[in-house]
Design brief:
Layout: E1 6-7, E2 39-41, E3 46-51, E4 66-70, E5 79-87, E6 96-97, E7 104-106, E8 109-117, E9 122-125, E10 130-131, E11 141-150, E12 153-165, E13 173-174, E14 178-181, E15 186-189, E16 192-194, E17 205-211, E18 215-217, E19 224-226, E20 233-238, E21 247-250, E22 254-258, E23 265-273, E24 284-285, E25 293-296, E26 306-312, E27 316-321, E28 325-328, E29 332-344, E30 355-359, E31 364-368, E32 371-373, E33 376-378, E34 392-395, E35 410-419, E36 427-433, E37 444-452, H1 456-461, H2 464-488
Parallel strand pairs: 1-9, 3-12, 13-26, 14-26, 28-37
Antiparallel strand pairs: 2-4, 4-9, 5-8, 5-11, 6-10, 7-8, 11-12, 15-22, 16-21, 17-20, 17-23, 18-22, 19-20, 19-24, 21-25, 23-26, 27-29, 29-35, 30-34, 30-36, 31-35, 32-33, 36-37
Length: 492
Amino acid sequence: MSLPIRLLRRTAASAASVAALFATAVAPAAADGSEQVVIRFETAESFVMYNADQGAGAAPNDSFAVPVHVEASESGEPARNVRVVVDASGLEGVARLGDKEACTVRGAVYTCDYGTLQNGDGESYTPLTLLGVDGVEPGDSGTVTYTATADNAPTITGSTRMTVGGPTLSAPGQEKGVSGLAPGESANVTARFANNTRFPTGQGVALQVDASEGVTLTALHSNCFYAGPAPTSAWCAFPTKAAAGAAYRTSAPLVYTVTPPGALTGEVTYTWSSPANRPADHTVRGAGSPLTLVRTAARGFDDTQGRVAITTTVQADYRPVTATVRGRVGDTVKVRLGLEDLGPGRIQGDEERGRFEVVPPEGTTVTSIPFTFEDDGGTWACERPGKPGGAFVCEIGYDRFYEVRHEGGTTAIDFHIRIDRQVPGAKGSIRTYNPFDRTPANDLAVIPLDASPAPPYRVLSGHPWAWIAGGLAVVGLAAAYRRRRRRTAPRP
């Protein structure tokens, strides 16, 4: 089993460019125990560049990768100065070549320096930017060839058939969501598409279904392949030649189940494509009855995928972390305030992590809420109220809480609070909030004030007339002392 190949300069592939099989480019085989360095390509045998109906308007596609792998050997010798030359001249008439800076370019020939690759390892470049052309048909194709050389390994060659796919199949976009789904419960969605192009799907149709973490696909059909025995992804093939302008749906719904203990939210998405090229990692074939396609109304299809949003019954219970503001009048004290995440669900997105709100006790002033982020700092981690007596709003999803945020634990920060005066029985408040907290009884706590009188020096420091009176008293005492010394001094 080879080690993973590191991909350099790789962008996300479009749905139309899923590779069906891996190429079997011939490389000299090293016998067991041989110290010969051997390299091989791990490229796709076929690759869909764009869909025919997109023509020259297709988005640039730079996801075609040319990975080179070094066969593991006992010697541990790396492949030195690996260089790959990619010849894309065979794409004339079916694709245009855009600008790409990953490799040296001369016409349609790209020379890529991979450098020294370690034993058992590999790297990859995506040398081409592929652009569409008008006037093509689905299935039109050309060939890209490539050659890899190294200072201490035999030269290898390979090729990939680059095809024009299509037609583009449209999906309904956001479907009706499902709420209140408990862990272990199931729901379903019927996948639909429309062929809003002038081309029929002469090579059949493929359906790709993906479920988010905490959601599992549970109806396993015999014309579908799954990525593992408890799959979150499925790929299904249909021989149907979908007519231009027609719409279809699956004969049975796609069934999914929330996996205990369950996520707070989830999503099931699906996309359609033609031709039907199976992803290499979908290897488990379903044993249930096959899905088929039946005609449906051709309206409401204006997106690239179908999406079903899921909200479960799982909650993320927050409760406040509070403390007493304790000190003398005039003191500025640190009071750690925040929230504790009791779960059992965990909020994943920063935009939904929730917040806590702090109203300080009467007789106090919040002077700062310092925070640290990426070795830098700031004075206010929370939004200050617009008027006295309002709440400080602390959104824990913000970067300002990055250093103190803990999933499944306590998120708290120091409030610097000045005690201005004694107010018997004064209490502030702290309240927690997130959209998945379904236990409101523990969302609110008090922040007591325990203020002692200021020390005498601080009392004097706050009253100028006391200082003046004290100064006059000192002057008077000094004068009396001098008079006393004159009376007691011996006469000459």
